[in-house]
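Onboarding guide, step 5: your first structure request.
Type a short instruction followed by the sequence, for example:

Predict the 3D structure of this protein.
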Amino acid sequence: MKILVIGSGGREHALCWKIAQSPLCEKLYCIPGNAGISLKWDCPTIKANNFEEIISFARSSKIDFTIVGPENPLVDGIVDHFSDAGLKIFGPGAQPALLEGDKAFAKELMKSAGVPTADFTVCHDYHSALNALFEMKLPAVIKVAGLAAGKGVFIVTNSQEVETTLEDIFKKRKFGAEGNTVVVEECLHGEELSIFALTDGDDYLILPPSQDHKRIGENDTGPNTGGMGAYAPAPIGTPELISEVENKVIKPTLTSMRNRGMSYRGLLYVGLMLTRKGPQVLEYNCRFGDPETQCVLPLVKGDLLEMMIATTEEGGISKWKAGHLKDKVYTSDVYAACVILASKGYPGSYAKGILIDGLQKEYEDTVVFHAGTKMVDGKILTAGGRVLGVTSMGESLENALAKAYLVAKDIKFKGKYYRRDIGHRALKK
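The system replies with structure tokens like these:
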């Protein structure tokens, strides 16, 4: 099969790396890709939001199956465009993708489906949001309802932070139209956990549970980022907890989507807070998480491409299970840890075009996934806030982290920054 992956980050590099291992994969392309991806696979110079040109390329190159990495193309309806063109593609259509594209829609669906989540109020202007927050116990959470690249969630602890955050959203229009609506909700406390479920809209497969590190600073301080590191399987994701999440979250969510006439296919990402009351849903995403994907995929057993194709077929996951679930979907006796190397200044402004050194070496049990990189005259330069994801495997989490940090230290570029406490919660236990 000829496979096309859409996207340019560390998640897409990890997807290419894993899918290329499938016996079904004859040739792989990535649009637009990055420096690391282009070293092994063809990366046509087409923008990820140019659906017409991507479809034209898919037809002319006889692409058999397309996999969409980032959320924006999914929310904008790329799956619908491909389906209308008679092309097979992985992911939800525009309507089901509202689970991520519209947090107000997602919260209201959770409420109607009985999915455990924080109490919330949906607000469409500055004053209604201000009033809702004045009536709520602080700290509270303000979430931009639209897509905000992982940077639209704010924990406010006092009246000054409330007013400043709402002014940024509604008056300064920091998020544009994506900030026309906000969700104001109670602040949940506990540990976060990420659950990935491959689904055909009815049945599903659970991938290794993982834990992300959103804050820029060590000890989980500073502003939110797209993610500074992750590890899997997260020990708090016990079989008992996973079963509870299946029954209280995944099953009712899929049922509610079907009842609304928008069957959800592809990858359902459930972001959880494990509170004293039990697991509660923080958010849904309609795609693989980043950087969690970089430590989840190395643990997946069997043919991921085959599983992804099954999500596009009626009853496909059930058929796949019947033929392949003699063993677990993922290995539980190996750990993977990902440490993100970021540009100085991220998640704020940062310099680009800085030379990266140390990528020529081979590392045992380690893969360096590229995110914000570009190739110029045969040299690899920085091109984003999150530059690289160093992912290592080991027989224990401590071992995997030790390997990842050795490589993280070895790679050089001016202004390199990374957190040195990835996995700290699990290690303390």
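Each response can be followed by summary notes, for example: DSSP finds 15 helices and 21 strands in the chain.
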